[in-house]
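Researcher: I'm preparing a figure for a lab meeting and need a structural model of a single chain. I don't have an experimental structure, so a prediction will have to do for now. The sequence is pasted below. Please return the structure as tokens so I can convert it later.
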Amino acid sequence: MNLPDDGLVLLVKQDCETCRMIAPLAADMAKRGIVQAIYSQDNPSFPEGADVRDDRDLETSFGLDTQIVPMLVRREGGRETGRAEGWHRGEWQNLTGINDLGQDLPDQRPGCGSLSVSPGMAEELQARFGETGLNAREVPVDFPEDTMEQMFDRGWTDGLPVVPPTPARVLRMLQGTRRKADEVVGPIPPSGEICTVEKAAINAVMAGCRPEYFPVVLAALDAAMDPDFAWQGLMSTTMGAGVCVVVNGPIARRIGMNHQHGSLGHGNRANATIARALQLLVINLGGALPGGTDRSTHGHPGKFGMAFAEDETDDAWQPLAQARGIAPGKSAVTVFGFCGTSINNTETVRDAETLTDSLSMCLNALYHPQHAEGGIAGMLVLSGEYWRIYREAGWDRDRIEKSLLKQTHRTASGVEAGETSYATEGDLVPKFGPGDLVLVRTGSNAGLFSTIIHGWGSGPRGSQPVTREIVP
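Model: Understood. Here is the structure written out token by token.
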């Protein structure tokens, strides 16, 4: 940035009504030597009749922290000693020392926003001309190399295209949180490579997240690093486990997450990218590659990442986060290690008791009908129609959970025979251990469906769901 050490500097853009209004005055001030330099953001021939410096790269505008144009700046000894934004005759007269300056112009007119503060531009200019504060090594990709292909070749993807994490995009992502870029989040399994907020931001960019999603990504990352979640085991098991993220609270609505049609599937950017950022972290920092430390026998599509918002539109339903101790009105994530999904359909049910019988049969078949006595986890996802049946019967979350846990008890002989119906007497064996059945509500109000999200192993050597409040 080459600025005069002393005198007046004027910044303008032709695409500004106020700049066009003062253009003749600006040209006259330049001719008379009142203004030492005029910088134009969009046309180096504007104002006409003046010697104008080209600032289309916005380096000078960025260096002067220009918010509004026209902007008149006084400099003395290489330092700024005054400025006027927009047109205000009195302020311009004070800066120039000319008492009759602009007598033929209105007393004042507001200026226009500087091009240097256009949406997304601040981070671009910071990356090009300022101190970024970023510590990650930048990898140059020179023409004619293709950036996307380079990222595939270097193994930085999950098999799908990723967004190149330019410094400007990373800076923009970091605007989504108050946490410092160099703050340590923790070790990423399975390698144990230390993750900082900056590295999380890089992978959130690659996943396609917007900055407003980033607090959710960080909360999910904090939760996944809890020892109870056993992320190390999830990444190295042959069962092919991934991370499911359930989002509760106002932030889900604010960032536009889907809790209706197709909420467990494609079509919504937030749903599709939040958990994907975690999967990219375990690839790029953790080194979890299929056939390497990721020992999945089959894997499943959910390993790309699964995130969804719970439907909180009915006050009669207690959201998952509140059921797990988060205060009402707060936003939170719950991470759940999972190995795929299965959809269940019972068209004929019309009452709560019959529906519970049907759902418990599906749950008893989870992984295998002969599997019981804890050790696995499941998340049951209720559709709107199933919840309506329960609600009209006066059932709440607590009653549904207790009834399902009761009706997923069978006799030892029934388990051995692979029976899925529950037993009412005898030496009963539970399907799920304490806390291993998680109940959520999402999806549209059309369709008598539930989905079981298959959990990974639970208990001391398995994975437990972990919930964290989301903070900016």
